[in-house]
Structures are given as structure tokens and as C-alpha cells.
């Protein structure tokens, strides 16, 4: 039997420009609702006021999002992010392969500086910096680091960038442990003073502390919650890394670290 279509029904009817536009507008309003409640729990009245909607429209959009699990509703309190959003956020975090995500940024930084660029994370024991990726520089020097190597946190630029958020007590303990384990000798008071400056500036230096005649500039990478999850560094021979050049490289290295952090969901906006 041939099927028939009721012209008055919406089923199988061709989409018009107006219906497509209306659907897009509804989608965007729904996204606005999600972003609004991401900051705080809001009632339908508060949503309407914040987004410039009628209360009935705000309630309709929020109810549809509750039905799909993107929002949850607490009586007398209001709407908040739902389990579906949390699950999607977890999946997005898992899928964000830091090496693959960071690689184009590292290559761009390597091209800009012509120096060796590293990507690293804290190792599983939180005792060393683990090198995940390396872009070899174009200069005729050899940076002996290798992917998979572990280096002390307190004497490498990359390691210092990974621990910028730690307390002074934690830093002092880690410094003492690294020194006892054979890290290159350093003055504890001077090291702590420099770390305070690095933490305020959002970068870190290696001033030939880990390897003779090798200097580097580093910066931390943060995830959506603001936690430091990785770091990058630009390394070169001291002859190419005088104090003025290191100071100038800070902005480029931090900008690259921020770009990677943004892809992980971090925002530097309050």
C-alpha cells in the first residue's frame, strides 16, 4: 500500500528556512541556559531575567534540558547542571590526549624560537617530571633529553612549572628530598625565593641547574578546573639564552601553554 502524508502534519514535511532558523535559535537559547546555570543554581524566574526571556520560555527550555539529563531541578532551589553534562565532561576530558592536542602548539613554538621544545607531566609518584614529547631545535646543539625520561622536579624548568601551585612547605620538602637523592646542589633559600617569583609570574626558568650550559623557559598547562596537569619548556644552549632572551621568551612560552590549556577547557577569565 502506498503511504500518504498529511500536509498539515510536521512529519516528512520539508524544512523551511524559517523552521531551520527557529530550531537554531531554540538550540542557542538552550545552550545559553546551560551556560547560565554552570555558574550557579537558578530558578526559572532568574533564568528569564538573566537571559531576557519570558518566564514560560525559560521554564520550557529548562524542562526540556532536564528531560534529557543536561540539567537537574531541585524544588525551591532551581536548575543546576545535570548528570548528562557531567558525563560528557568526563568523556571530553578522557578524549583530550594531551600529546596529540599539544603537538601543533609545540611545533609552532619550535618554529618561532628555533630551540628544543618539551612537553611533560608529573610522574605517577609525584616525584619527578616525565617527558612526554620533544620537538628538536634547529640550532647546532644537542639537548640530551629523551621522551620517557624522568628528571627532578626542583632543578628543571619543566619540573618547576609543574609545581608552581604547591605550598612553600611542600616545596621545601621536595627540594630537600631531591637534594638528598643526588640532584645538582643548590641553595635552598635562593631556590625558594626564585620559586615565589615564578609562581607570581606563571613561568619558571632553568638556569643551568640541571645540565651545564643548558637553560630553559617553562610554563604550566592547566585543565578545566585550573589544576596544573602538564608543562612545556623551551631549552637551548646558554649562548643562545642570555637573561634578556629568557625574559623575552616568557610571553611566548606562556601564550603557548595558555593556548593548550584553553583546549583542555581552562579559562583565564574570572
Features:
alpha+beta, disordered N terminus, 270 residues, 9 helices
What would you say this structure looks like, in words?
The chain is of the alpha+beta class and 270 residues long. 47% of the residues lie in helices and 18% in strands. The chain contains nine helices and eight strands. It has helices at 17-39, 44-51, 55-67, 83-95, 98-113, 157-162, 168-180, 188-201, 243-263, and strands at residues 71-74, 78-81, 116-122, 128-135, 150-152, 204-207, 214-222, 228-237. The strands form two sheets. Strands 5-4-3-8-7-6 form a six-stranded antiparallel beta sheet. The longest helix has 23 residues, at 17-39. The radius of gyration is 26 Å and the shape is elongated. The relative contact order is 0.10. Mean pLDDT is 88; it is low at 1-19.
Measured by DSSP, the beta-strand proportion falls in 15-25%
Distance between the termini: 63 Å
Structural class: alpha+beta
CA gyration radius, whole angstroms: 26 Å
Principal-axis shape: elongated
Poorly predicted ranges: 1-19
- Chain-averaged pLDDT: 88
Q: Which assembly state applies to the chains in this document?
A: single chain
Give the beta-strand count.
8
> Sheet with the most strands?
6 strands, antiparallel
Helix content: 40-55%
Strand order, sheet with most strands: 5-4-3-8-7-6
Number of helices: 9
What is the N-to-C succession of helices and strands? HHHEEHHEEEHHHEEEH
Amino acid at each position: 500500500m502506498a503511504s500518504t502524508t498529511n500536509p498539515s502534519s510536521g512529519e516528512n514535511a520539508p524544512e523551511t528556512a524559517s523552521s531551520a532558523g527557529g530550531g537554531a535559535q531554540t538550540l542557542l537559547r538552550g545552550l545559553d541556559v546551560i551556560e547560565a546555570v554552570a555558574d550557579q543554581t537558578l530558578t526559572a524566574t532568574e533564568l528569564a531575567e538573566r537571559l531576557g526571556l519570558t518566564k514560560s520560555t525559560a521554564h520550557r527550555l529548562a524542562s526540556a534540558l532536564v528531560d534529557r539529563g543536561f540539567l537537574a531541578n531541585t524544588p525551591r532551589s532551581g536548575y543546576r547542571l545535570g548528570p548528562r553534562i557531567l558525563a560528557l565532561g568526563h568523556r571530553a576530558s578522557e578524549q583530550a590526549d594531551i600529546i596529540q592536542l599539544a603537538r601543533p602548539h609545540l611545533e609552532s613554538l619550535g618554529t618561532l624560537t628555533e630551540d628544543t621544545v618539551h612537553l611533560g607531566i608529573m610522574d605517577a609518584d609525584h616525584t619527578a617530571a616525565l617527558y612526554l614529547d620533544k620537538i628538536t631545535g634547529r640550532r647546532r646543539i644537542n639537548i640530551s633529553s629523551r621522551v620517557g625520561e624522568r628528571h627532578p622536579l626542583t632543578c628543571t624548568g619543566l619540573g618547576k612549572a609543574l609545581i608552581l601551585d604547591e605550598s612553600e612547605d611542600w616545596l621545601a620538602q621536595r627540594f630537600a628530598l631531591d637534594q638528598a637523592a643526588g640532584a645538582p646542589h643548590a641553595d635552598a633559600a635562593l631556590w625558594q625565593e626564585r620559586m615565589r617569583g615564578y609562581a607570581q609570574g606563571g613561568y619558571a626558568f632553568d638556569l643551568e641547574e640541571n645540565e651545564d650550559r643548558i637553560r630553559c623557559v617553562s610554563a604550566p598547562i592547566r585543565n578545566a578546573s585550573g589544576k596544573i596537569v602538564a608543562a612545556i619548556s623551551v631549552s637551548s644552549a646558554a649562548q643562545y639564552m642570555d637573561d634578556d632572551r629568557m625574559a623575552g621568551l616568557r610571553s611566548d612560552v606562556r601564550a603557548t601553554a595558555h593556548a593548550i590549556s584553553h583546549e583542555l577547557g581552562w579559562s583565564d577569565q574570572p
